[in-house]
């Protein structure tokens, strides 16, 4: 069996990567199309906010789906979920024609969006569960970097591409294109070679109890027992509160110090994507030892925070350097995130990795909606610069906290 795994390893990585890229493209197009439909049909910011609330709520509740990811044969999970997303895209196309029943269309489209987003919430952790099973530990960092590199390249143009498709085609045609791309992803997922006994449990009493809620709690218990990882996650969740605050201030900050047009914010996002891309590229070449992770977190988070603070400090004197420091911040965060992901994959048994990944996601993302709410108040009553500075200060303080804790442990 292991000879077959080694023989198909490279093919598996390529097939999984292409499938995930197709899923990302289809997801983005689905999201932009739904968003644009709500904007042009209802002309209400409150309706649009429902989409963001759905995203945040599902991210926060991702841990609920962890046992499902661990219980089901992953290849079947990828296939069935993608089939569902393809059908939902076709169904959404039909709903666009319910012009006489706008309220009904709104409810059904929100439900469709919720189901498709839940599908993505299931698919993304599945990749993290698959990679350690098909890639050796020595190659895990490079393969994760390759995946992140591909996603960063997509980030450079994906939303713009989706917007162009929605602009130049009708909403219904854009959604059909989304369904077609989901179908392409399905074709690649179907080609994955994943022996069931490599991933699926067989009477594994250590990680499965036979009851869904107990299996869910088992994931929390296993994570709790891994003290180092939990110690890393909790402060990052608090730091993300300030990321949520800064994300609201960023468009206002960009238009104030760069240009008044939307291109200023777009440029800031572009340079951030380039920074993340460079971080992924660097880490794929040099690799990082697991034993150095604590030092990496301190250095990367500290330098990212300093970069964000410098963005606001030089905004009045040399505005163009804002782009450089935005790139720098994303660069260091990218390096930290990839190494953290590798640590998670190496530290836990594949039978429980679905639960660990979704619990981590829930913890880390739970503070962002609160931060976004506070960000609106801070930007309105203080300034966008102050909102962004809070993120940099929080990252530096968290880095110092890690430094003190890790030094105390050693």
UniProtKB/TrEMBL annotation:
Which regions span the lipid bilayer?
12-38, 44-65, 77-98, 104-125, 146-169, 175-194, 229-250, 270-289, 296-314, 320-338, 359-379, 385-405
Q: What is this protein called?
A: MFS transporter
User: Sorted alphabetically, which CDD domains does this protein's record hold?
Assistant: MFS_MefA_like
| InterPro entries according to UniProt | MFS (IPR011701), MFS_trans_sf (IPR036259)
Q: Where in the cell is it found?
A: Cell membrane
The yes or no answer to whether the keyword Flavoprotein is present is: no
**Which Gene3D superfamilies does the record match to this protein?**
MFS general substrate transporter like domains
- What is a single Pfam family found in this protein's UniProt entry? MFS_1
Where does the source fall among the domains of life? Bacteria
- What SUPFAM superfamilies does this protein map onto? MFS general substrate transporter (SSF103473)
Please report the organism this UniProt entry assigns to the protein.
Lactobacillus kitasatonis
Question: What membrane topology does the annotation report for this chain?
Answer: Multi-pass membrane protein
Tell me the keywords, alphabetical order. Answer: Cell membrane, Membrane, Transmembrane, Transmembrane helix
């Amino acid at each position: 069996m292991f000879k077959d795994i080694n023989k198909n390893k490279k093919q598996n990585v390529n097939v999984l990567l292409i499938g995930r890229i197709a899923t990302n493209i289809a997801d983005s197009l689905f999201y932009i199309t739904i968003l644009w439909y709500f904007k042009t049909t209802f002309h209400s910011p409150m309706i649009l906010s429902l989409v963001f609330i759905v995203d945040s709520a599902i991210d926060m509740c991702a841990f609920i789906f962890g046992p499902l990811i661990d219980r089901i044969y992953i290849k079947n999970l990828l296939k069935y979920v993608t089939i569902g997303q393809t059908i939902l895209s076709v169904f959404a196309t039909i709903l666009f024609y319910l012009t006489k029943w706008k309220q009904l269309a709104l409810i059904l489209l929100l439900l469709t969006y919720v189901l498709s987003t839940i599908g993505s919430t299931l698919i993304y952790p599945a990749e993290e569960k698959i990679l350690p099973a098909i890639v050796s530990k020595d190659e895990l960092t490079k393969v994760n970097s390759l995946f992140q590199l591909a996603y960063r390249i997509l980030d450079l143009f994906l939303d713009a591409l989706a917007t162009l498709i929605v602009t130049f085609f009708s909403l219904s045609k854009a959604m059909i294109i989304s369904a077609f791309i989901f179908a392409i992803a399905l074709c690649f997922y179907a080609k994955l070679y994943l022996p069931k006994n490599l991933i699926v449990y067989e009477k594994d009493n250590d990680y499965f109890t036979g009851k869904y809620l107990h299996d869910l709690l088992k994931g929390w218990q296993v994570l709790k027992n891994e003290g180092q990882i939990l110690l890393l996650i909790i402060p990052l969740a608090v730091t993300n509160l300030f990321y949520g605050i800064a994300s609201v201030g960023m468009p206002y900050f960009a238009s104030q110090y760069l240009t008044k047009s939307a291109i200023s914010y777009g440029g800031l996002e572009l340079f951030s994507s380039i920074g993340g891309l460079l971080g992924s590229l660097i880490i794929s070449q040099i690799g990082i030892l697991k034993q150095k992770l604590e030092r990496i977190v301190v250095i990367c988070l500290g330098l990212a925070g300093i970069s964000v603070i410098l963005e606001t400090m030089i905004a009045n004197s040399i505005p163009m350097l804002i782009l450089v420091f935005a790139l720098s911040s994303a660069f260091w965060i990218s390096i930290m995130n990839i190494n953290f992901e590798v640590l998670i994959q190496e530290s836990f048994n594949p039978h429980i990795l679905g639960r660990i990944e979704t619990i981590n996601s829930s913890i880390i993302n739970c503070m962002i909606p609160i931060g976004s709410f506070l960000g609106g108040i801070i930007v309105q009553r203080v300034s966008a610069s102050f909102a962004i500075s809070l993120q940099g200060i929080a990252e530096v303080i968290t880095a110092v906290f890690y430094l003190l804790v890790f030094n105390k442990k050693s």
